[in-house]
Here is the input.
Amino acid sequence: MKPRGSVFEQCAVAVLAAALAIGIAYNAIGFSQGLAVPHSGTGDAACMTAIAKGFLEQGGIYHNPWLGAPGIQELFDFPNSDLLNWMVLRGLVLFAGQPVTATHLFLLGSFALAAATAALVALRLRVLPPAALFVGVCFSLLPYHFYRGVGHLFLANYFMVPVAVLIAVRLMGPLPVRPSSADVMPYAMRSLLPPALVCVVIGMTAPVRMAGVSMDGETFVPC
Here is the structure.
């Protein structure tokens, strides 16, 4: 399925959608006092900030001698399927040097990623660029995104949903012609490798949530 527009036009639509989403989200959430000021104490906000600070002081999330009195905090048995999210958050902590700023940057980045991926998928589905831009921005600004926010930072990062939808749409299409033995490797690289990589990324951004149920048993409905 050939997308609408050139590569430059697709990138321009994605970047514009991401910029608009960040600008609207920044004002809607209310970061008027700056990104270093805690915005919310609901949900897992305090836990996420403590873990982000642990990245800065301890270099990881599993061991922190400053928490867990009278002993120490050890999270080795804590269920965790968000490897990519943790890696990004750690990078933001090291970049910003401040845990609250890092969590807020992650949240704003989730708006940008959701807008960009939704716009690109819309273009891939032959939607006109202006409509794809609108779809991307609207998808990133769903009430669900603001409801989760910093309190459930990784649940708010649903940028892989449009890509999963694109794979589902392709699977519902006609079956590809079976390649000859000489064309197996080119066919695999062209048709099988991209979906496989997407599945790997989905698996690193909480596969349980992508399946339709959050870790706490709530139905995943981003609306």
